[in-house]
Every structure is written in structure tokens, then in C-alpha cells.
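User: I'm preparing a small set of examples for a lab meeting where we compare how different chains pack in three dimensions. I only have the primary sequence for this one, and I'd like the structure in C-alpha cell form so I can line it up with the others. Please keep the answer compact; I'll paste it straight into my notes.
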Amino acid sequence: MWYTEATNAFTEGLDQATFTREFVFIPTVDLKVDSQGDCRPDRTIGMTIAFRHEWIQRKGNPRSMSVMRIQGDSMSPTLQAGDIVLVNHSDRSTNYDGGIYAVAVQGEIMIKRVQTLFPSRQLKLISDNKEYEAFTAGSDDAKVIGKIVWYGREVEPVWGGDSGLVQA
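Assistant: Understood. Below is the C-alpha cell output for the 168-residue chain.
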């Protein structure tokens, strides 16, 4: 089950992590933003990524995590198109120090550095690629979906379509 900040309600059907004695397998999902700003999963799982139990439990509850694939270059050089990120959907709290988060903005999911601006509580969304300007958004315009807690990169990615891609 995933918690969406937009409605403060649980969305069923995403608890698809599977477990073995040593590993947790987290699914790659394609999230869509609906008209109310809630994230809804495409229930098609493209692949799963294995993480060791002891490691992933330090990052949070695996049942509240998903894997997404990056699209675009706005977070380059940190994150590249084709990279995969592990999103902890139960960690949505931001602060002035920032961090990298999945954020729903105007119907799209983006991966950005996020800082909370006080006292307005607006979010400052920052790209690592200096060709993209930072911008601010209010709570009506941007919803934090989860914190990026890990990323991985293929040396030579194999493209099988754009399933699971999110805009960076």
C-alpha cells in the first residue's frame, strides 16, 4: 500500500515487493498523476530489482518502495537518462537542506532536488543540470511522492520501450 500526500489516503495494489530469505525484490512501476494530483500505478511490472534485506531495511519499509527509470537530462550529471532509482514513498518530508525526491508537478512525475522554503512552505525544485533553472511551487502545484534512496546505472542500457520512465 502506498500513501499519497494529495489525499492523505492509501492506494491499494502497489504492495508488490516479494521476499526470499536473503533478498527483497522491488518492482519497477510506471506512475501516472490523476486529475486530483494522486499517483496511480500502471499495474504492469517491467522488472524487479533485488536488494539485500539488511541493506534495504535501513532505508525504510520495502513494501512502501518502488523502482522507476529516469528519462531526460535535467538531473545530469548525478542521474542520467536510463538510470533506475529506488523511491521510498513513506519518506516525503523535505527540509531546507534538500534531498532528491520524486515529485508530481502539473500531471508529470519529476525527479528533483527539493528544498522547503520557510515560512511559505513552498517547494524549491532544483535540477543538477545547470541548463535548467530552479523553480518554486506551492502545495497545490507539487506533491512529494517519495525520497530517492538509491540509484543504479547500466553501462550499456538496453532500451525496450519507455515503460517506467520518469522525467528528470
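A couple of notes for your slides: Helices lie at 53-59. The longest helix spans residues 53-59.

User: Perfect, thanks.
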